[in-house]
Amino acid sequence: MNKLFENIFEKAIKWLNRRSVQALTPLQRAKAFVVLRRLFKREIINAFLILLGVFSAAFGLKSFLLSNDFIDGGITGVSLLVSAVSGINISILIVVLNIPFIILGYTQIGRTFVIKTTLGILGLSICLATINFPILTEDKLLVSVFGGFFLGAGIGLTMRGGGVIDGTEVMAISFSKKTGLTIGDIILIVNIIIFSFAAWLLSFETALYSILAYLSASKTVDFIIEGIEEYTGVTIISAKNEELRLMITRNLGRGVTIYKGTRGYGQGVDIDILYTVITRLEVARLNTEIEKIDPAAFVIMNSIKDTKGGMIKKRVLH
Predict the structure, then answer these.
(1) What percent of the chain has pLDDT over 90?
(2) Strand, helix or coil at 18?
């Protein structure tokens, strides 16, 4: 495996720098090799996430939504709606209707995003055209919930991998820069229009079930994008900051960042401000420990979608 990395490294360096890798010092070679290996590993993980997302979305569509003429929001929903009304193959529609947004994504986001998005959309189209997923249920409520769940999981995993399989987000980003609307507002308006057409062209009942599928999908996307765990950022202002710091690092096994601050009330005394990130399940325990040390401590808590690095992902062992 190391030999493979070395070969890739040498080719990458020659391509980027237009010179022989031998021109680099041993230390530069070692550092560049480590960076390239990390990038390579990350892209392998991203590719796996996109592949898994494509299969999940295809499974949700063919095993649940397509068999009942249900739709979803966004460009995928438009593709499902057009397919249900016209009979055009959904595999073709997903590719054709996303082409303008792939082009838009190149100008708004970048080439890497477009490459991953294109591969994700083509992969979804191929899966829908070639793989015969089983129809697991005909119960409309189950179809809405689980169809939306698997489709949302596919969209979320693909986004985790650095691409999308639905161009709505790209369109929303572009329009939000030109209007006073937020990305969420634009997506909501687009989906209202889509489901209104679904009620008119299909049936009111189908539109309602489709809205349920969309809600299930959107919640699943949020769950995957924001992380499985929920984190809480905690800011603590206390005269007993050293005792609290030791409690957090030793008892909870969490890292602490110390800010230098000055009290705005009174004589303006300097004070250390503690900041740490914990999981949702540790909030009660932290509050209990703070009460033991300093009941008068000023504590601020705010939700965090996800974290990277530090001591939050891996506990310190004692």
Answers:
(1) 20
(2) coil
